[in-house]
UniProtKB/TrEMBL annotation:
This is Endonuclease V. It comes from Streptomyces gougerotii. The record marks Y90 as: Interaction with target DNA. The gene is nfi. CDD domains: Endonuclease_V. It is found in: Cytoplasm. It comes from the Bacteria. Pfam families: Endonuclease_5. Belongs to the endonuclease V family. Keywords: Cytoplasm, DNA damage, DNA repair, Endonuclease, Hydrolase, Magnesium, Metal-binding, Nuclease. Its EC number is 3.1.21.7. Its cofactor is Mg(2+). One of its GO terms (cellular component) is cytoplasm.
DNA sequence: GCGACAG
DNA sequence: ATCTTGTCGC
């Protein structure tokens, strides 16, 4: 069978924050650059990439994957992976500082940039309105959305149980995202605008990318690929110690 | 101060 | 995220 393409080596930027206060300061600066109007690509056109990461905290290793699908057919177009050191601990609200170096490296390894990036997590639904998807969008200039599996600190009325039913995700005041049923009778996903895509359109993208399962195909593919990349990287390490 | 908290 | 077997169901 075809050999898996070698993962790109992740290099953490020299100015990457190392403290929580430093990371929050970066968020407070970059949040001004978020574009909430877009409109970004028409759902079902061009390409959409899913990005995800897997960790081996014991070895301080992270593997990222970027999987590009044809937005109309959901057929794979291209994929890339990256492996490197874990640059930041998991801190709620600071997830981007843990995931972005590897994710950006994988995205940069693609021959053609995608028309949309779908992140595993939140965009503007975030304590400082600058979650992973927004951060990625601002740094790359690519339209991005966040599709999370948990409501994080937000609340929402239960959406109806049919596919497409949705309710506002709020912090008690403003709507920061949408609880969206992608599959009848299954827990909703939590969609928020990242960068360059308005919320309603982010929801439309999510529904088109998730025709059969709870999570978008982009996310499912990226999740499978980053896990495989991590296993491959660990396997190599064991072979020559 | 305590609890809760995307992945 | 990750630790983890079998099991019920389409």
């Amino acid at each position: 069978m075809r050999a898996r393409p070698a993962p790109a080596a992740v290099t953490v930027p020299a100015d990457w924050p190392t403290t929580e206060a430093g990371a929050r300061a970066v968020q407070d600066t970059l949040r001004a650059r978020v574009d909430l109007t877009g409109p970004g690509p028409e759902p079902g056109t061009g390409t959409a990439a899913g990005v995800d990461v897997a960790y081996d905290d014991g070895r301080g290793l992270v593997a990222a994957a970027a999987v590009v699908l044809d937005a109309a057919t959901l057929e794979p177009v291209e994929e890339a992976t990256a492996v490197g050191p874990v640059p930041f601990p998991y801190v709620p609200g600071l997830l981007a500082f843990r995931e972005l170096p590897a994710v950006l490296t994988a995205l940069a390894a693609l021959a053609t940039p995608p028309g949309l990036v779908v992140c595993d997590g939140y965009g503007v639904a975030h304590p400082r309105r600058f979650g992973l998807a927004s951060h990625l969008g601002v740094l790359t200039g690519l339209p991005s959305i966040g599709v999370a599996k948990n409501p994080f600190t937000f609340t929402h009325p239960a959406p109806g149980d049919r596919r497409g039913d949705q309710t506002p995700l709020t912090d008690g005041a403003e709507e920061v995202g949408r609880a969206l049923r992608t599959r009848a009778g299954v827990r909703p996903v939590y969609v928020s605008a990242g960068h360059g895509v308005p919320l309603d359109r982010a929801v439309a993208h999510t529904l088109r990318l998730a025709p059969a399962y709870r999570l978008p195909e982009t996310t499912r593919r990226a999740d499978a690929l980053c896990r495989a990349a991590l296993r491959a990287a660990l396997g190599e390490g064991a072979g020559r110690g």
